Amino acid sequence: MKVIVDAFGGDNAPLEIIRGAAQAAREYGYEILLAGREREIRETAEKNGVSLENIAVADAPGVITMEDGPKSILKEHKDCSMAEGLRRLAAGEGDAFVSAGNTGALIMGATFIVKRIRGVSRAALAPLMPTNAGVPFMLIDAGANVDCRPEMLLQFAHMGSLYMTKVLGGGRTAQVGLLNVGTEEGKGGDLQHDAYHLIRESGLRFVGNVEARDLPFHIADVIVADGFSGNVALKMMEGTADVLMGFIREIFTAGWASKLAYLLVKPGLRALKRKMDTSEYGGAPLLGVARPVIKAHGNSGAAAIKNAVRVAAEFSRAGVIEDIAAAVRSAGPETAVGE
Fold first, then answer.
1. 304 CB burial (10 A radius; 0-12, 13-18, 19+)
2. What is the Cα–Cα distance from 21 to 60, expressed in whole angstroms?
3. H/E/C letters for each residue in 223-275?
4. Nearest Cα to Cα of residue 287 among 236, 334, 222
5. CA-CA distance, 132 to 149, in Å (whole number)?
6. Hey, CA dihedral for 152, 158, 161, 164, is it positive or negative?
7. Prediction pTM value
8. In angstroms, rounded to a whole number, what is the distance separating the alpha carbons of residues 52 and 133?
9. In the chain, what is the greatest distance between 2 CA atoms, to the nearest angstrom?
10. How far is residue 277's CA from residue 297's CA, in Å, rounded to a whole number?
11. 278 three-class SS
12. Model confidence pLDDT, tens digit, residues 257-269
């Protein structure tokens, strides 16, 4: 298994990316191909005592920042580490690709360099989110496609179901819900009405509409949404988790008695933090692309990158992409979504 990693993507690049890649190579035995400025990668690793055993480097002089526009990966920054890694993936030089860099550029690059699965209308960003059940749910789409048609949401439902069933299902077929403003069948706008009926008749394990407040309670394994609504839900959940942990921190630093109490509950609080940390799940699959691509969080540290590499390898081994391609073919041209 060889995983390509964008060494210069994210807020903590390149050091934390190199560290995470090295941890993955050591713990999982994967081959790693780091894409980025070779001299800087090697100097950074040597300076910080990071072994590059089982790690190769694909030199790429350019860097794409979080502020750059999505199309810049195809134009002024086509020599960047992200583009080089995607080109290597498309050429078959690796089994999967991981980047913590610019989300828009990654979606654009994956779509036009790696290409979409034939018959898939749009690639969708599909992060895994924590729940009270201790197992995650997938939110698809979480921002790649702000404007959607009902047929696109149906494809998202199929792709998300296949991923969660094969990668995290444990032999159980994934349940699918539709993000909406109410649970009743008639809720929402035209997009939600039409998507509801398409998904209900699709043969998927459809549980119906799901309200945003119920997302953390594991109502379904896959929650389908247009990219605008999905991104709002994603950011709200992330922000709420940060605020909650901040409130807890204030409680246990209010005085000496609180600090003593903290020592007693410290293990439980650490476990709570891990449960609410999306980086534990290793980043978001980009579904609909012809090769496995994982988007890690922009502020990923070494542990998050290591997890992202693991998830990328699981994604590749599961054969999800082949199953999505087969499902699209079996649907026939009359149900294919236009470009």
1. buried
2. 17
3. EECCHHHHHHHHHHHHHHHHHHHHHHHHHCCCCHHHHHHHHHHHHHHHHHHHH
4. 222
5. 31
6. negative
7. 0.91
8. 38
9. 69
10. 11
11. helix
12. 888 888 888 888 7
Q: Is 124 strand, coil or helix?
A: strand
Looking up tokens 């790696």 gives: 114
Q: Kind and range of the H or E element at 27?
A: helix 15-28
| Structure-derived torsion over alpha carbons of residues 150, 152, 154, 160, reported in degrees to the nearest 10 | -140
Report the candidate in 318, 296, 291, 308 with the shortest Cα–Cα distance to residue 91: 291
At residue 339, the pLDDT reads 38
**Beta strand pairing status for 96-99 and 293-295?**
parallel
Spell out the residues 6+ positions from residue 26 whose beta carbon is closer than 8 angstroms to its own: 51, 53, 54
Closest CA to 99 of 295, 257, 279, 234: 295
How would you class 117 by CB atoms within 10 Å of its CB: exposed for 0-12, middle for 13-18, buried for 19 or more? Answer: buried
3-class SS of residue 24: helix
pLDDT digits (tens, 9 = 90+) for 53-102: 999 999 999 999 999 999 999 999 999 999 999 999 999 999 999 999 99
